[in-house]
Amino acid sequence: MNDKNIDSILKKYPVGKSENLIFILQEVQDLIGYISIESVEKISKYLSLPTVKIYGVATFYDEFRFNTNVKYTVKVCEGTSCHLNKSSELIEEIKYQLSLINGSKEEEQIFCLQIVPCMCACDKGPVFTIENEYYTFASPEIVKPALDKFIEKNGI
Amino acid sequence: MSSIENDIKINIKNILKNSGECSNKEIADKLSYLKRESIPNAVITIGIGSSSIIAGAVDTLNAIKNYISTKNIKADVIETGNLGFCSEEPVIGVQLPGKNLVLFKRVDAKSVEFIFDAIFSNDIISNKVLCQVHNSLHHPWEDIPYMEDLPFFALQRRNLLRNCGFINPESIYEYIARGGYKSFVKSIINYPCTKVCEIIEESELRGRGGSGFLTGLKWKIALTSEANNKFVICNADESDPGAFTNIILLEGDPHRLIEGIAIASYATGADKAYIYIRSRHNLAYQRLNKAIQDAKELGLLGYDIFNSGVNINIIIKQSPGAYVCGEETALIASLEGKRGMPVTRPPYPAVKGFNGMPTVINNVETLANIPDIIDKGPAWFKNSGTFSSKGTKLFSLGGKVKNCGVVEVPMGISLKDIVFKIGEGVKDDNKFKALLIGGPSGYFVPEHKLNIEIDYEKLRDEGFSIGTGGLVVIDESGCIVEITKFFMEFTARESCGKCIPCREGTKIMSDILHSVTRKPVNGSGHETLERFKGVMQLEGLADVIKNTALCGLGKNAANPLVSSMKWFKEEYEEHIFDRKCYVNVCKQLRCFKIDAENCNGCNICFQKCPEKAIIGTVLQPHFIISNKCTGCGICYDNCKFSAIVVV
Amino acid sequence: MIYDIEVNNRKIKAYRGETILSALQRNGIIVPTLCFMKDLSPTGACRMCVVEVEGEKNLVTACSHTVEEWMKIYTHSLKVINTRKLIIEMLLASHPDECLYCIRNTNCELQKYTAELNVSERRFNNFSERKKNDVSGAGISYEPSKCILCGRCVRVCDEIQGVNTIDFIKRGISTIINPSFSKSISNSNCIYCGQCVRVCPTAALTGKNHIPYVLKNVHKQNTKLVAQCSPAVAISIAEEFGVKAGKDFSGQMVTALKKCGFDAVFDTSVSIDLHIYETAKIIAEKIKNNDKTTLFSSSCPAWVKYAEQSDFDLSRLSIIKSPQQIMATLIKTLYAQNVNIKPENIFSVSISPCLAKKYEAQREEHSQNIYNEVDAVLSVRELARLIKLSGIDFLKCEPAPFDEPFNIRSSASNLYAVSGGEAESILRTVIFMLTGKETKDNTYTKLRGFKDIKEISVKAGIYDINFAVVNGIKNIHKLLDEIKTCKRHYDFVEIMSCSGGCINGGGQPLKTSVEDLKLRTKIIYENDKKDVINKAHKSPFVNDFYNDTLNRLQLVTSFDELFKTSYKYKKVLN
Ligand SMILES: Cc1cc2nc3c(=O)[nH]c(=O)nc-3n(C[C@H](O)[C@H](O)[C@H](O)COP(=O)(O)O)c2cc1C
Ligand code: SF4
Ligand code: SF4
Ligand code: FES
Question: Which of B156, B585, C289, C307 could form a disulfide with B479 if both were Cys (CB 3.0 to 4.6 A apart)?
């Protein structure tokens, strides 16, 4: 099933042109949620690019994930303004709360955390989002209730 | 509406070639409608962009739509980009026929109803109003300040931003109605490529992406390089923590950028242009995409534009996320599908770039300047600014400042004016400590240096630099050492890892700063010695990294460190010698004491302390053994009787 | 165009378009480099080669900047020296302080520069956790904590070998050199050619150490410690003792090994003769039957692994065991029979210029029979270490001959050490087998030299013989494509993974220059020219073997046990 979909992504790009690698990886991750070994093997054949080069490229960038099939993303801003407003404490707390929810299994993570450089809300920091819900002026205390609310709403 | 669009579509050549003055009265009327000079019914605008969405603009939008349909009011609701005044968001605008546009601030979903109730009966809720926008064709409102009168806008010169927050970024017609794409058509029809390069060169426009290289010169180099293919890349990978100037432009006025890119492509003879945009799935991407589609549909992009034989092709690529990919050679590597590692220059991209072909890389802001320069001429552009730096510059003003947002100021304005006039000073009337200019590879500017004018050369002479235009105000509650550490950690993480000085050096420096901002873990004298040794090396390290790193990231990595050590030496000394962070930011340096008066011996701190640094018996005052305490603050957070104090 | 540039206040000559580094090197000015590799594009990663150029704001890397006529360069000003010193110190911050116990002690480039730049204390400490070692690989061990990320291994693996096992993974301070999906080396597509080990400036990549296994069996009761030496060892071992390349030290080597405690020392060339003979038989048969399939050689274990993990049709691979394994089998059967001990009581060591041979020795085809064919494999470097460990003055050893019964060989066998040699020696015998006549001129220059692909067509009576040689594993696809698209036919294709052949193997002395390779090649061809027994089928051992020995030999299973092996597809991430 997945294989077919990956083929259909590949078909959009010319054979052997490795300059499209990153865009193919982006599409693959959009489709299956992460970069799997199987998909890398397929891309490798299609672009005539060794898998290690693909892996090297993918690990260079923040965007790509391996092994974890994440459903929801939590984003926190760590811009300078947010940092001044103590976003590091917020990040610690989010990390801790997410680790409680996700547990130790690498493969079945529900949430993944993305730390972003600036969310353009420098006056409202610290800021974090759970999918499309925004929390401004966030203190560590509101993390748990926010996550609980989200979990309840989405029936996780 | 759609009939207007059709008319414009059919007459597009006339409109664009006749430099705006349209002979056809009917079309002229329609354009004036699009400019909202004469409107048949009320127009409501709401700024929807990354920053206002976080402020709740989507809820406000829904409330507006709801209000209109339930009250059965005939009004157009238009989603615009953001005005740039982040601290007052969500901003909405209401324009009644014949009246000036009024902007309201901080409009949450709840306040929509009473604002609208009032204005539709010609009344204004004064504490929600931001300003009115002057237009000689309309009647002014009484007792409402004009935009120019607000301190935030008074010193700004909004050229690039003039459409942001007013036009619908998803409508190419609104852009055209305001004179858009004229410059492009003028270029391809009236000027040969070299002439366009010359105009830009004459305007002395310098790159806004950090380096300040003359844009016209860069284009010329690319134009004169012999090659089969040439490329233009628009660098929209803005990922400095705390900078959001480009994103405002992209979300608020995408066509201005598209036009700039189109002109750049024409001027340099490029057959393809790429926009390399930061992060994924955001609004800017969608708006740009739509803009390109629309421009193609009108024949403004694509093949043989307006029968001039010019082909222009713009493709958007989304950056997979790495700060260093803002660096031009790394960006090219990333576009080529490789690890985003910078390579040595020369050869410069303008000679040998993407796929080994001449490539012009320009920042979003640089390119957005182009249409106006072509339209109004280089002399107009040179009118504002200083001897060596012309035009206007966008800054994102953030941190502990009252008015936060993106501002466009003429070159030559002083930093003090930006912070204290436009920004109206420090938030909560705290004391100003430092201004951080240029993000994680930028500089700390102390108060007595704020008189400096914004000018590439003047800033450089004083040892600063504009960078990409982030300005962050730090007030008395901020700890300079800690912020420097934060930046060092950022660069260590974001370094591409290729060259030794940058990869290892930044890590060593952040480790040293780390040791300065926390207590010795095991309290051995050895660690103290290490700390002193480390601190003594900092300057030497900074120097070597600056001198030897391959790319700008490494070369500038030590800037915050060097400038903070220069201007805020005392703070380092407090941390190093007194082992104190007097603003209590460096938590691990804190020392706690139990105030025996307030302690009723509840024993909770004793149980919670992970270091077993608290002793005492139940119902008796407890004590903290100070050299066991690591300053984690758990006891402090848990004490219900405020008996634990920081000393 | 030549012009003068000024370096350290003296004029030197420079060519237009060359790098500063090359001009300096030619003029005898030494600038330290860590990431620079001759003939490969500069990456400018280490920044050790910085020099001061008057008028430039920052220091300039000599390896990546071209010289300009106006340049005034200072290569060893105080600023430059201090900068280099600090760069080294930065590396040392995260480098383990283990020089004394490190295999590269005294020949580590990092250590060398540390000493040269007078670094005398550890000024910085990097508090990151030590990265885990990977000792899973059969031929190669990897210690990431010692890696300085110069990227030489990556470039060799990609640009020279074309195998692409390793690359930079992650970024910034977490950058690490790893195989695909950070798998262990044993699960990767590494073919153990060992070229990365040869270029690594530190001990991050090293050959698997087999010395301890050998030491355990020295003078052990009831155990015979036996060595077989590949022909590419005798001509390079002396370089490890400071002798210039190009001399054959097989006699001294035998003595030294004896002194180290080996009970018998044999010449792998003897089994090479058998290998030539067996392979030639197949080829001659094929040609006679007008069978147009191509036989691909299988004596290079790195190539065999490469073939097994690709979509190569394994039925085309020669099923004849490699010389090392043939000899090992003979040792555990014929020799065991002769001295009357059980095969388990022989500890058989192969001394080889190759790290992939360590892998070959432990392939299940060769180790899971009734006995382990080869028990340990020592590289040239390990052999030198063993000799030093045993306190032997190698250069003063009296030469001695190899031990019976494996001591008589043809000079053709020694050609196996160089690229094209296998094809040439087999060709000599094939011609004889097809025509029954001995040729006078036995030199086939078309098969010699360092070209990527070499081919030859020879007429032997009514038959046409077509051979090809692939010099360096990267070129295999070129040849396969050619076979496919141009419909070229070859009766036999020789493939050696390392460019130049075993004389450039991963187990050879680390600092082998192109010059050394030429000298090593020269001595082999010279010896061949002088020898009268220059074809495998003329070797008395071979004749004796088929006429007599084979009948006496009590093989455990069958004739196949001696000569045949098998291959199977291996799934790895390519
Ligand atoms: C680490 C680093 C990050 C950079 N990030 C950006 C960026 O986000 N946006 C940008 O336009 N230029 C960035 N630059 C500058 C670019 O390398 C380049 O100078 C610029 O895009 C040239 O455009 P300009 O001539 O219009 O300024 C960065 C440079 C460095 C060294
Ligand atoms: S200076 Fe830093 S980011 Fe730039 S090439 Fe070197 S390691 Fe990479
Ligand atoms: S393993 Fe060796 S050769 Fe490879 S990058 Fe590390 S130090 Fe360089
Ligand atoms: S040798 Fe020049 S940078 Fe490494």
Answer: B585
Confidence check: pLDDT of C110 > 90? yes
Q: How many CB atoms lie within 10 A of CB B477?
A: 16
- The two tokens of residue B178 are 């305001």
pLDDT at B69 over 90: yes
Boundary of a domain, candidates B475, B491, B510: B475
B461 interfaces chain A, CB cutoff of 8 Å: no
**B–C interface: beta-carbon pairs under 8 A:** 107
Torsion of CA B574, B579, B583, B588, to 10 degrees: 150
Q: State the pLDDT at residue A1.
A: 46
d(CA B276, CA B287): 14
pLDDT for the residue A2: 61
How would you class C3 by CB atoms within 10 Å of its CB: exposed for 0-12, middle for 13-18, buried for 19 or more? middle
**No. of helices (H) and no. of strands (E), chain A:** 7, 4
- To the question of domain C279-320+409-540 being in CATH 3.40.1700.10, the answer is no
Interval between CA C151 and ligand 3 midpoint (Å): 5
Q: B586 is written with which tokens?
A: 């460096």
- Residue entry with tokens 């150490």: C209
Min mean pLDDT across A124-133, B335-344, C15-24 is at A124-133
Rounded-to-integer distance, Cα B304 and Cα B299, Å: 9
Domains (range + CATH), chain A: 3-60 (1.10.10), 72-154 (3.40.30.10)
Ligand 3 binding pocket includes C148 (Cβ within 6 Å)? yes
CA distance A33 to A64: 9
Chain A residues with CB under 8 Å of C171 CB are 59-60
Q: Which CATH number fits the domain C211-271+322-407, given the four candidates 3.20.20.10, 3.20.20.150, 3.40.50.1780, 3.80.10.10?
A: 3.40.50.1780
Please state whether A138 falls in left (phi above 0), alpha (psi between -120 and 50) or beta: beta
Find the mean pLDDT for residues C512-522. 92
Q: How many domains does chain B have?
A: 5
Look up residue C463 and give its two tokens.
Answer: 């038959």
pLDDT at A107: 64
Host H or E run for residue B131 = strand B129-133
pLDDT (tens digit, 9 = 90+) per residue, C370-411? 788 899 999 999 999 999 999 999 999 999 999 988 999 999
Distance in angstroms (rounded) separating the CA atoms of residues B291 and B275 = 13
Which chain B residues are within 8 Å of C175, Cβ to Cβ? 497, 503
Length of chain B in terms of residues written = 647
Range list of β-strands (E), B278-421: 314-318, 359-363, 392-399, 405-410
Does B265 contact chain A (CB < 8 Å)? no
Q: How far is the CA of C48 from the centre of ligand 4 (A)?
A: 5
Number of other CB atoms surrounding residue B212 within 10 Å: 17
**Does the CB atom of residue B491 touch ligand 2 within 6 A?**
no
Here the tokens at position B635 are 């006891």
- pTM score, two decimals? 0.91
Phi, psi angle pair for B461, to nearest 5°: -60, -30
DSSP H helix total and E strand total for chain C: 22, 17
What strands, in cross-sheet order, belong to the sheet with B314-318?
B314-318, B272-277, B231-236, B359-363
Max intra-chain CA distance, chain B: 93
Residue B18 lies inside a defined structural domain of this protein: no
Closest CA to C241 of C380, C104, C353: C380
Q: Interface pTM (ipTM) of the complex?
A: 0.91
| Backbone CA torsion sign across C386, C391, C392, C396 | positive
How far, in Å, CA of C418 to CA of C3, rounded?
41
Establish whether residue C205 lines the binding site of ligand 3, counting it when its CB lies within 6 angstroms of any ligand atom. Answer: yes
Cis preceding linkage at B560, omega within 30: no
CA–CA distance, A83 with A89 (Å, rounded to integer): 9
- In what helix (H) or strand (E) does residue C74 lie, and over which residues does it extend? strand C72-74
